[in-house]
Amino acid sequence: xxxxxxxxxLLRKRLLSMTxxxxxxxxxxxxxxxxxxxxxxxxxxxxxxxxxxxxVDIEEKCIELIARYQPEAIDLRTIIGLIKINNDLERxxxxxxxxxCASIRLxxxxxxxxxxxxxxxxxxxxxxxxxxxxxxxxxDVQLARSVxxxxxxxxxxxxxxxxxxxxxxxxxxKTISRCMDLALIARNLERxxxxxxxxxxxxxxxxxxxxxxxxxxx
Amino acid sequence: xxxxxxxxxLLRKRLLSMTxxxxxxxxxxxxxxxxxxxxxxxxxxxxxxxxxxxxVDIEEKCIELIARYQPEAIDLRTIIGLIKINNDLERxxxxxxxxxCASIRLxxxxxxxxxxxxxxxxxxxxxxxxxxxxxxxxxDVQLARSVxxxxxxxxxxxxxxxxxxxxxxxxxxKTISRCMDLALIARNLERxxxxxxxxxxxxxxxxxxxxxxxxxxx
Amino acid sequence: MVNKDKITTExxxxxxxxxxxxxxxxxxxxxxxxxxxxxxxxxxxxxxxxCLNRMNDLIDNTKITGKVSLGGENVYNNRMDVVTLRRRxxxxxxxxxxxxxxxxxxxxxxxxIQGVRNGISERVRKALSAAALWNEVKDRLNISALSLxxxxxxxxxxxxxxxxxxxxxxxxxxxxxxxxxxxxxxEELLFTLKEQYTxxxxxxxxxxAARVSECAAFLLLGELIEFNNTNKIFTNPxxxxxxxxxxxxxx
Amino acid sequence: MVNKDKITTExxxxxxxxxxxxxxxxxxxxxxxxxxxxxxxxxxxxxxxxCLNRMNDLIDNTKITGKVSLGGENVYNNRMDVVTLRRRxxxxxxxxxxxxxxxxxxxxxxxxIQGVRNGISERVRKALSAAALWNEVKDRLNISALSLxxxxxxxxxxxxxxxxxxxxxxxxxxxxxxxxxxxxxxEELLFTLKEQYTxxxxxxxxxxAARVSECAAFLLLGELIEFNNTNKIFTNPxxxxxxxxxxxxxx
Amino acid sequence: xxxxxxxxxxGFSLLYLSVFIAIFxxxxxxxxxxxxxxxxxxxxxxxxxxKEGMTKGGIVPAIxxxxxxxTGAILFSLPLGIFAAIYLSEYAKQGRLVRIVRLGINNLSxxxxxxxxxxxxxxxxKFFGFGVSILSGALTLGILILPTIIRASEEALLAIPESxxxxxxxxxxxxxxxxxxxxxxxxxxxxxxxxxxGVGRAAGETAPIxxxxxxxxxxxxxxxxxxEIQALPYHIYALMTEGTHSELQVPIAYGTxxxxxxxxxxxxxxxxxxxxxxxxxxxx
Amino acid sequence: xxxxxxxxxxxxxxxxxxxxxxxGILFVLFKxxxxxxxxxxxxxFLFGRSWYPTHTPGEFGILPLILGSLLVTVGxxxxxxPLGIGSAIYISEVAKPGVRDVIKPLLEILAGIxxxxxGFFGMVVFAPFxxxxxxxxxxxxxxxxxVILGIMALPTIASIAEDAISSxxxxxxxxxxxxxxxxxxxxxxxxxxxxxxxxxxxIILGMGRAIGETMTVLMVAxxxxxxxxxxxxxxxxxxxxxxxxMGETMVGGIHYQxxxxxxxxxxxLTLTFNIIADHISHRYKKKMTG
Lengths: 218, 218, 251, 251, 284, 290
Ligand SMILES: Nc1ncnc2c1ncn2[C@@H]1O[C@H](COP(=O)(O)OP(=O)(O)OP(=O)(O)O)[C@@H](O)[C@H]1O
Ligand SMILES: Nc1ncnc2c1ncn2[C@@H]1O[C@H](COP(=O)(O)OP(=O)(O)OP(=O)(O)O)[C@@H](O)[C@H]1O
Ligand SMILES: [Mg+2]
Ligand SMILES: [Mg+2]
Ligand SMILES: O=P([O-])([O-])[O-]
Description:
The complex is a heterohexamer, with 2 copies of chain A, 2 copies of chain C, 1 copy of chain E and 1 copy of chain F.
Chain A: H1 3-34, H2 38-69, H3 73-107, H4 116-138, H5 141-171, H6 176-208
Helix pairs in contact in A: 1-2, 1-3, 1-4, 2-3, 3-6, 4-5, 4-6, 5-6
Chain C: E1 5-16, E2 19-30, E3 34-38, H1 45-52, E4 62-70, E5 73-74, H2 82-88, E6 89-92, H3 103-113, H4 120-130, H5 134-137, H6 150-162, E7 168-172, H7 180-193, E8 198-202, H8 206-212, E9 215-220, E10 223-229, H9 230-235, H10 240-246
Parallel strand pairs in C: 3-8, 3-9, 6-7, 7-8
Antiparallel strand pairs in C: 1-2, 1-4, 4-5, 9-10
Helix pairs in contact in C: 3-4, 3-6, 4-6, 6-7
Chain F: H1 3-33, H2 36-39, H3 42-47, E1 51-52, E2 59-60, H4 63-94, H5 97-110, H6 115-134, H7 142-166, H8 170-178, H9 183-194, H10 196-212, H11 215-220, H12 238-246, H13 254-288
One magnesium ion binds near residues 45 and 46 of chain C.
Function (chains A, B): Plays a role in the regulation of phosphate uptake.
Subcellular location (chains A, B): Cytoplasm
InterPro entries (chains A, B): PhoU, PhoU-like_sf, PhoU_dom
């Protein structure tokens, strides 16, 4: 195996572990809301610094690999893909922090009727995220494409949620502020879905050198 | 001048013109709201396809430049920076589409009391965007740093706006749906500010090879 | 802008003795572009290049079948005069090979053998300018060409090839004997030359091929594996073997 | 892991006649790492390398001041025996230079001159394995080394340098006569060798320096401009001249 | 380690010794010839005819004879040699013909000089009927030095890098234009060296002219190329082996030897100087 | 025929001349010498122990001449080979550039000293010296001839061997030194072995030169056509015989013919040497280029 391949492999592994952390953050943020446990949310917020550091590290490593090995063709696409995916992952991390912050705000006030859709949506987007990264690691274009399809589902769900929240707010103006936060959470979850889709698109680019983003119907 | 420099110059120019388009989109989206002119918003939505295409083109060109010239040191950082800035610009484009869509939804309903803050915030974030790109083109690290500072201002403004909107909603639940859209617009503007900050950070990285993002207080 | 092919080969085959060195090469070298030939050592790059101006005629035991057309005419036609052909298709070699004459006489040589008498110095000046060497040597045209640096010598050889205004310039690893700085200068020169000439360059420096060329051909064991835009070849080659070679996974 | 310096130079100066070729070089070459020396042609890279095993002694009119320490001992001390020094500091040259002997005898040569009698074939096998050549030649150890390919010859030379288990291996552009595929093989070999040896490599292929080395030194007109981590040099050099050279803006 | 150093010292000593002996032996020859010959040489010795049955007088016929023979030989073999060398280095394709030609040249150069003498005797003197004459001797010597000339010329031509030829051909020159314009001009110094060495060799040879050109004594200077002549080398031999007053002849022989040696060495020196100059100036 | 083709044929003609001359030599030798074998049988000629061509009937056994030639040649080689090769090694490997620039041209110049000068020197200086030292009746012996011939062949051998040694790539030397070999080890184990074929070619060419040498041996070997028993007796070589006797023979007579017959033997002998040397140096070239 070429030395470059070893380095690339190492980077892939780091990305995978970063994904694990990010996924955990999302789940925890939502869990803190469900279990009404502020400490979990705080942990998510605190964990972000590490993800941020890791992101910076990985990006530096990628640039170093380009600078040192001048990769071409699939190797180059992989590294550029890594940079972008890494970026997206970090943003997903930020989004879970956003969710956690909203959760903390919500926990200061009495509980609203629990929103089932939120957990369900979390399931979908973490699934998307996991699959997009899996597709990257395995070079599985099929799986990547399936993630893109699932994005519509997530969008659908968010719209549904927002509509539900609107009704709550209309019914009881006292809930407005809380509903706004819940809407924010829904939006963030949806954005996580979007970013996972981005990742999947990058995977497709890496493997087939076709940039497909924006081609699908908006 | 080296051939590579020519190519890089060309790319810079393209990025600049893309920035112009994106800026225009943001301003138009807000203008459509202010002037209550749906046609302007529609134009924004339609113009996005071109921005998307341009983004894909620029990114391909960047990868091509890496593949063909194996740039090192500042050249490499510039190209990687270009890829990231390009990405950010496209996202800003998407955000203005989001604003335009919200605007279209708002225009279906009677006008709320005009929100002065929104125009003001638009001014701030478009200023940030313009400056961040200017700092990139001119390699002006000073300017880039100033953009990062202004981000707090934008955040402040958004919080202020959201609080104002909450009051409206509480006062008159009929406005809830419209206020939600306005809040969305405020959030999107704030995200434009965030992305401009990202761009500025990239500019600093390109020129000083120091990755500063996440270092500043969150 | 539709570019037409300046040189095309059709089923070009070449044997050195029993050694089948080029196998059914079909390629179209576009006008006013730089085409690069890449491939591992011994794959037939130089041989291919030397087919185009019939320099292989000098080697014994060579058998060639197929067609090489230069602007529509078959180069291996009996009516094609080799001397005229070589005047139309200039060549620059791996090692700078100026004659041990003065700078001026080096560039004037092709004119002199053609019996040109008038305007020689003007044409020499033009060729040296085109080869981006004029400013460096204009005050010492009479010193020996051998006292120039390697990179200058190579540009002198380019000027010498340009002076009779060929249609095509073939370059066989023109920078492999030069250091990176001289190489960079030659590469920059190529970008300006291609506006007027059709250039075909052999290089085993893949990065160089990537930098300078618009089209690239990948040869392997005498076969043309892939011929495409340089961008395509270097970001997304169609053939697995090209990809392996480009990314250094080969062999 | 703290790495200590295997070789250090202190204010190393060298003159060829009146030509001041190395100027106050202070450098520390770390143990079990690959250190690359880069710089434009004629900047003194080879000369610097040849100072480390006193190969410059062979050149007349050389004047050297300053210190070169190998594991603490000054190499230019009178008590230092050049023959022993060269055994401790092996060297691999630009052009593969196997002796016109069999493969086996090439590698056995350093042992034979030292008067080793026992276990020669075992040590030859080990050296050839370490140079990643054993599998390719094990069945034909008695054929002439000159019938190997260029890349194989270079690995043979590496094996020959390894057989006496030197502490340091100096390489002066070891791949510049090789094609990209053979080069890739040697580069891979370097990664495994550095676990056991301290390696210092001169190359004018910057990409190669970037790929293989952990530390890199940039020389210019005999001065050490920058000496740093390779990462740093190639992504963010501290000196403007390094940056210009690395990005090809030089000259 | 110590043992290796000692071996080295012994080895080097042997080398010094052999060079010393070689130089000593050769220079002692020069020494004797110069010491003993210098006294004999004067203007008269160089410019007058021999007198009194070779026991007195000068050696002018021998000097002239050697001059005629060497000039004739080079005039004959230089064009032949150059043309042959051009064929070999520029036109010949590797193959049986060239191998045979080359073998022929190598063997011709190895043929003992006395055999050339017999050949000259058989062909020029007898068969063509030139008799014992300048012409026969010059032709014989010419053939003798032909391999030297061909080799030197070929070497000079081969030293012209192939890249010059390729460059010229690639610029649209014909083969002959290439030879004329690029190859030959650069080979001339090398060819000249060969020619000069040939002259030196021709001037010093004795055996080939024994039966083809020389005579012990001739009373007048030659008037045509069909005349017999004296020559320096033969003169030395004759003085030592013929005649009856050896005590008078030996000093003359010393003088003649000094003249011959000076002549030949000067010629060789010239060739060597040219060659060194050329090597220095050559940058390709 | 085009101009270019004509030019090529023109040059070809001259290239073939050497062959033509060689064939001519062979032809002349056989034409004049072959009829000797009609009168003397081949075995008696080659192995006959006495050479009395002027007796009646003449005896034409050239064994003493062949042995004389061989003895002198071997003796010459014993002198010339170690000195020549030692000098060659010294010049190319040991000498400082300044020294080399003097010694090398000196040897080259000395290589040009005509053979008759060596003969002369041998006669007037060296032979009397030998006579005195060893207290023998005449100084003109096989030994004297060997030494003089050896000195004469020395520059030739040295110069060819030097070429061979200095054409050993410098990189071999550097490689060896960098592996911790001493300079002597480098010379003995790398440089000289690499140049071995070139050196052998030099020796064989030197041998050819010695065996074909005429004037020197004619003047210093003493000229007795008897089978030699010691080094310190006069001998007569084939070349000397031809040179000495041709002048006195009757053209076309048996003596004349037998001298040509000797030339045939000589010619074939040197031809063999040359072919061997050629073969070796050919192989050498192949070896050096891999
Ligand atoms: N003059 C020749 N005679 C016989 N075979 C030859 C000759 N020149 C080249 N070949 C053979 O033809 C094949 C192709 O050679 P060519 O020189 O075209 O390769 P290349 O791709 O240019 O390699 P490199 O990168 O080493 O220059 C090789 O196998 C080579 O051995
Ligand atoms: N043997 C020598 N005698 C005199 N000067 C020399 C000698 N070798 C090198 N130099 C000079 O020393 C300087 C440095 O040479 P050196 O060979 O170290 O350069 P380099 O950096 O290795 O260049 P390159 O990349 O061309 O190998 C040059 O100016 C050169 O001319
Ligand atoms: Mg080639
Ligand atoms: Mg060097
Ligand atoms: O054979 P010679 O050299 O003595 O003429």
